[in-house]
TrEMBL record, chain A:
<dbReference type="Pfam" id="PF01040">
    <property type="entry name" value="UbiA"/>
</dbReference>
<dbReference type="InterPro" id="IPR006369">
    <property type="entry name" value="Protohaem_IX_farnesylTrfase"/>
</dbReference>
<dbReference type="GO" id="GO:0017004">
    <property type="term" value="P:cytochrome complex assembly"/>
</dbReference>
<keyword id="KW-0496">Mitochondrion</keyword>
<protein>
    <recommendedName>
        <fullName>Protoheme IX farnesyltransferase, mitochondrial</fullName>
        <ecNumber>2.5.1.141</ecNumber>
    </recommendedName>
</protein>
<comment type="similarity">
    <text>Belongs to the UbiA prenyltransferase family.</text>
</comment>
<keyword id="KW-0808">Transferase</keyword>
<feature type="transmembrane region" description="Helical">
    <location>
        <begin position="409"/>
        <end position="426"/>
    </location>
</feature>
<feature type="transmembrane region" description="Helical">
    <location>
        <begin position="256"/>
        <end position="275"/>
    </location>
</feature>
UniProtKB/TrEMBL annotation, chain B:
<dbReference type="InterPro" id="IPR018796">
    <property type="entry name" value="COA8"/>
</dbReference>
<comment type="similarity">
    <text>Belongs to the COA8 family.</text>
</comment>
<dbReference type="Pfam" id="PF10231">
    <property type="entry name" value="COA8"/>
</dbReference>
<keyword id="KW-0472">Membrane</keyword>
<dbReference type="GO" id="GO:0097193">
    <property type="term" value="P:intrinsic apoptotic signaling pathway"/>
</dbReference>
<keyword id="KW-0809">Transit peptide</keyword>
<keyword id="KW-0496">Mitochondrion</keyword>
<keyword id="KW-0999">Mitochondrion inner membrane</keyword>
<protein>
    <submittedName>
        <fullName>APOP1 protein</fullName>
    </submittedName>
</protein>
Length: 454, 145
């Protein structure tokens, strides 16, 4: 449980967020992603379905952990032990409580004297034979009773808390980039509201997709799939997150942000989720879903939908494509079997073209930023190498269309976005500069007027 | 699951359908509403199990056939010298995945509709049952106080 909590990166404040980035040198989440890069080929890694309110796949490495459950000499049933991941960034936590003497007869039938091993829950790199290794305790029959101790962890997984954290960070990036003085309370309220809305949307998404999730390697450890929580509770949780979240945004921040939040929840749950199984258009809808949080952050700060908000949204929209298309390239078998209509399966050429197109669009959008007075001209200059690199990888993916190029592109996209946002923030046109410019203009106008007056 | 448990039990994923079977607990004083809920869940479980088991079996079968036909076209055997099963690389399998997805599209559309309907009905029934139970508990508390 604590591991799951530790997993949610501490980045509540935008200012701290960027400092955090600077200090750690890289995002905590990409830290997990970078791990597989260093991992030997023999290691199996998991792609965990992890959304930016739509899709962002996280690779997660479960370290091998084997523990022996030794039976107590004086009791018949063996005690359960807490199996905790050594890796603090580990997402799943398997916790078993020691059986009390009273409950002994109950568990007599299901004695656990065998060695319990936690294998890497993996979707392997090789498409042809996905390994369906799971923890041994997964093979046991479990009572469908809500364990209150596990509830926080279960709810965290239900709401895809890590993805929610990322969504909140993009929203805070939007807030930080807005050309208004920084208001801490507004910022915190907006972040909280966005986070709650994201939790709600993710829970509903999982509620809708139970049988499909059970059939895909990535998602088969979700709480609803495993029966750790009932669908009714999932819906109630979603409602209890969504309603206060949107209310908070509408009343405490501004109605526009609230409306955007509600619209985004609707778009994600009622458009994107069903559309995933109907047509490849889901990718575009999903990209919009991912682009809205920074727009929400901006409108929370300024109260209006300016060109700057749309630009920020546009950058995130374009980013989704290389990110998702590269990722989905490796999941074609699961998608095909699960019945998901994804470009990588049905229109592979289009998949790669779109990814490349949007990599190049990122360059264009970065250049527009100073034109809209959001950043100084240093931004396109500094961001050019980053954008060119991802475009290069996008081109390689387009040309080679193989596993290695798709992986390279995917991993690049993971550090590309935070870096881009960070650079954008550091190149942000400061208000002082703008005010000075305004004063200068006013002065020159004044002088012009004086000169005209005889 | 043990005999004296008063809860449902959920088991490991099924080999064919990857769905986890649930054994439902039938309380002695089951109300008609609760019975409706239980039966709806049992029926849904059976439908899902049937669909996915058949679907996954078809997938593996067709995949084998595809690999076999492609290997034959290339002039290779199913197993190479070391006895390992010969496989095709991802790009060659891509054609199969695309084909399989489009072939089963109608089937999935139908299943989706049914699944959404069943899911909503069951959740709604769960809500009703929970509400009834909560009211009953409140009444019992009022009586006892």
């Amino acid at each position: 449980m604590s591991a799951a909590r530790r997993c949610a990166p501490p980045r509540a404040l935008a200012g701290l967020f960027f400092w955090h980035l600077k200090n750690t040198g890289r995002w905590q989440i990409p830290c997990q992603f970078v791990h597989p890069c260093h991992v030997a080929n023999g290691r199996l890694i998991t792609f965990q379905y992890f959304n930016f309110l739509k899709r962002m796949y996280v690779t997660q490495c479960n370290k091998d952990l084997s523990q022996q459950a030794k039976p107590k000499s004086d009791s018949v049933a063996s005690p359960f032990r807490e199996l905790q991941q050594l890796d603090p960034e580990k997402h799943t936590l398997h916790k078993m409580r020691p059986i009390s003497a009273v409950q002994q007869p109950l568990y007599k039938t299901s004695s656990r004297n065998e060695v319990r091993e936690m294998k890497c829950t993996a979707g392997t790199e090789e498409l042809v034979t996905p390994v369906r290794a799971g923890p041994k305790e997964d093979r046991q029959w479990k009572e469908m009773k809500l364990q209150l101790d596990d509830l926080p962890g279960i709810l965290a997984r239900l709401s895809k808390i890590k993805l929610t954290a990322l969504v909140v960070s993009t929203a805070s990036a939007g807030f930080a980039m807005a050309p208004v003085p920084f208001d801490l309370t507004c910022f915190l309220l907006a972040s909280l509201g966005t986070g709650l809305a994201s939790c709600a949307a993710n829970s509903i998404n999982q509620f809708f997709e139970v049988p499909f999730d059970s059939n895909m390697n990535r998602t088969k450890t979700r709480p609803l799939v495993r029966g750790q929580i009932s669908p009714l509770l999932a819906v109630c949780f979603a409602a209890s997150c969504g309603v206060p979240g949107i209310a908070l945004l509408t009343l405490a921040v501004n109605p526009l942000t609230g409306a955007l939040g509600a619209f985004n929840i609707f778009l994600y749950t009622c458009c994107y989720t069903p559309l995933k199984r109907m047509s490849i258009a889901n990718t575009w809808v999903g990209a919009v879903v991912g682009a809205i949080p920074p727009v929400m952050g901006w409108t929370a700060a300024t109260g209006s939908l300016d060109a700057g908000a749309l630009l920020l949204g546009g950058i995130l929209y374009s980013w989704q494509f290389p990110h998702f298309n590269a990722l989905s390239w490796g999941l074609r078998e699961d998608y095909s079997r699960g019945g998901y209509c994804m470009m990588s399966v049905t229109h592979p050429g289009l998949c790669r073209r779109v990814a490349l197109r949007h990599c190049l669009a990122l360059i264009g959008l970065s250049t527009v930023a100073p034109l809209l007075d959001i950043t100084t001209w240093t931004f396109p200059i500094i961001s050019l190498p980053i954008n060119l690199y991802i475009s290069y990888l996008g081109f390689r993916f387009y040309r080679d269309a193989d596993r290695s190029s798709s992986r390279k592109l995917f991993f690049c996209s993971l550090w590309h976005l935070p870096l881009l946002l960070l650079v954008m923030f550091t190149c942000k046109k400061s208000l002082v500069e703008k005010e000075d410019k305004g004063d200068l203009l006013a002065e020159s106008h004044g002088r012009a007027m004086e000169m005209r007056l005889p | 699951p043990p005999a004296h448990s008063r809860n449902d039990w959920i088991g490991p994923p099924d080999k064919h359908s990857n769905l986890r079977p649930i054994i439902f607990y039938v309380p002695p004083e089951e109300s008609p509403l609760e019975r409706r809920l239980r039966e709806a869940r049992q029926e849904a479980q059976a439908c899902d199990q049937r669909f996915w088991a058949r679907h996954n079996r078809a997938f593996s079968q067709e995949k084998e056939e595809f690999i076999y036909s492609r290997l034959k076209a290339k002039g290779l055997e199913m197993r190479d010298e070391t006895g390992q099963k010969a496989t095709l690389n991802a790009e060659e399998m891509a054609d199969f995945y695309k084909d399989f997805l489009s072939k089963n599209f109608r089937k999935h559309m139908q299943y989706n509709r049914d699944w959404y309907k069943r899911n909503f009905t069951i959740t709604f029934l769960m809500g009703q049952v929970a509400l009834v139970r909560a009211l009953r508990w409140l009444r019992w508390r009022k009586k006892n106080v």
